[in-house]
Amino acid sequence: MPRTVRIAPSGYLYHVLTRGNNRQDVFEDEEDFRKYMDLLLRYKEKYRFKLYHYVLMTNHVHLVIEPGEAGGSLSEIMKGINLAYARHYKRRYGHIGHFWQDRYKSIIISNANNSGDTFPISYLFRWGHQRAIITFVGLTREGSLYPMLLMISGALLIM
Questions:
Q1: Phi, psi angles (nearest 5°) of residue 143
Q2: Which residues are CB-contacts of 37 (< 8 A; sequence separation ≥ 6)?
């Protein structure tokens, strides 16, 4: 049975989540985090979307983005980023099989066209900082605290 078509109209802000298959790690070291950020910025240029916030954790990624009217759709953006990063990881580590778990998930945060202010900042702080704190104070499998390297969070507010 074919998958249902994703409905993601332009002119909206989205909270996007993409996770490693079986919740496995997708970032092994700082170089992987940097590669993902490089790809994110490269596809931002290509598809002209606004990136408001990001949180990269060891096994998943959160993005708050607004696809541009003249740029790519949400599906094109996420396909490009996820495919490019999966190729990097598979080449670097010899990974075989599924890399990402299911399709990315997206939640509409607000309609950027109908509000005077284009982004609900309260959502950003409530969501972003809560996730960062939970990750930072979490325990690794060995029982020690996550080092800061394993989570990168930022508010870019790139218009």
A1: 90, 5
A2: 56, 152
**Which tens digits make up the pLDDT trace of 125-142?**
455 444 443 333 333 444
Q: Are 149 and 34 in contact (CB under 8 A)?
A: no
Q: Is the pTM of this model over 0.90?
A: no
- pLDDT bucket at 79, cuts 50 / 70 / 90: very high
Q: Which residues contact 148 (CB under 8 A, 6 or more apart)?
A: 136
- The set of residues, in sequence order, having a beta carbon less than 8 Å from that of 7 and lying 6+ positions away, is none
Domain of residue 42: give its range: 12-154
Instruction: Please compute Rg for the chain using Cα positions.
Output: 16
CATH of the domain at 80: 3.30.70.1290
